[in-house]
Amino acid sequence: MNFSWVDLIMAGGLAALVLFFFTPGLKQTIRESREEENPDWMGALVPLGLVVLFIVLLLMLA
Which of 25-29, 33-37, 55-59 has the lowest mean pLDDT? Predict the structure, then answer.
């Protein structure tokens, strides 16, 4: 793929804007996660497990 220099500058500018807007929220999220003593891993693992089971079911039915 051949990208023009304008495309590359626009992509770089977009990446810089994304970093600029999301960095404060990420810093706050990391700070809050460090302050929390007991993370709720089951709240993340149960939906993830259900998604994996659903994908396995779809693969078995195909």
Answer: 33-37
* Domains of the chain by residue range: 5-61
Nearest to 6 by CA among 18, 17, 14: 14
Of the pLDDT bands very low, low, confident and very high (cuts 50, 70, 90), residue 33 is: confident
Give one DSSP letter per residue of 3-44, joined into a string: --HHHHHHHHHHHHHHHHHHHHHHHHHHHHHHH-SS--SHHH
Q: For the chain, how big is the Rg over CA atoms in Å?
A: 20
Cα separation, 52 vs 5, whole angstroms: 42
Residue with tokens 């195909």: 62
Cα 27 to Cα 8: distance, rounded to the nearest angstrom: 28
